[in-house]
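Chapter summary example: a protein plus calcium ion.
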Amino acid sequence: MAKILIIEDEESILMPLEDNLKLEGYEVSSAKDGLQGLSLAAGHPYDLIVLDIMLPKMDGFEVCRRLRQDRVMTPILMLTAKSQEVDKVLGLELGADDYVTKPFSSRELLARIKAILRRANEPLRGIDFYRFGDIELDFVKYEAKKGGRPVPLTALEFSLLHFLVQNRGRVVHRNEILDSVWGKDVYVDARTVDKHVSLLRKKFEDDPQEPKFILGVRGIGYKFTG
Ligand code: CA
């Protein structure tokens, strides 16, 4: 069963969350501050990290940033309390996979967790390897390279790229992307798609402002032309 690490200092959130996840059969570990969370996350092979932002010793943004910097690509679900935090999660290249805003229902959080784990564990079918421009994508080994150099990508970014590659040459609607990549049973804002696309452009396009591969189609969605 999947191993989940919760990094959260508020007992009133941590305890019921831990109980619910254990009831669902997950193996759960927890940390109550950012430093302890970081050292657990870096030293153990978790399947998912639930990460609060306001934490003692080191905040969740920094924990996420450091993990990604160290190439720990475990999916991360961030817990946000304020809209400013949401903007920061989406805007910065933190490498978080998803976020949930407090207060949240345990049902919603469980749906998100299941969607992330499904995405991370399901093999990406259909296309194993794809090359465009100076970019190489290996969907079996979850490896990406640009100009021969490795580009670290989250499981979510691989799924999104895989979906775009599978639908190359076709305009795909944001909702289609949400249903396929995030899952039909979770509610995610359409701008989440836009933010993740813009992060992909920063990683792969020579000029992210003038993309050559992931084109925007105003009011509809995107078209991959690689
Ligand atoms: Ca907190």
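Key point: The domain at 129-224 is CATH 1.10.10.10 (Arc Repressor Mutant, subunit A).
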